[in-house]
Design goal:
Secreted protein with PEP-CTERM sorting signal, single chain, mainly alpha
Amino acid sequence: MDEHEPNHQDHDLISDAGNEIKGMAREGMNHPSTKPVLTGAAVGAIAAGILPVVTWPIGLVAGAGFMLYKRLRP
């Protein structure tokens, strides 16, 4: 690997996330990140339904955000 070539971790997380979200919006279910992010959103919403202090929308966003982060930074 070239020492001047940036590693994936060196890229800006916000711009990477924006590009990934745009790709998911364009390609829909055919994009490789769509299914894991939707699964994370569902798991977060269910977990929030079980927990007494967290509402399901917060759990949904947290679950989707976590899975998107794991797709960008494995």
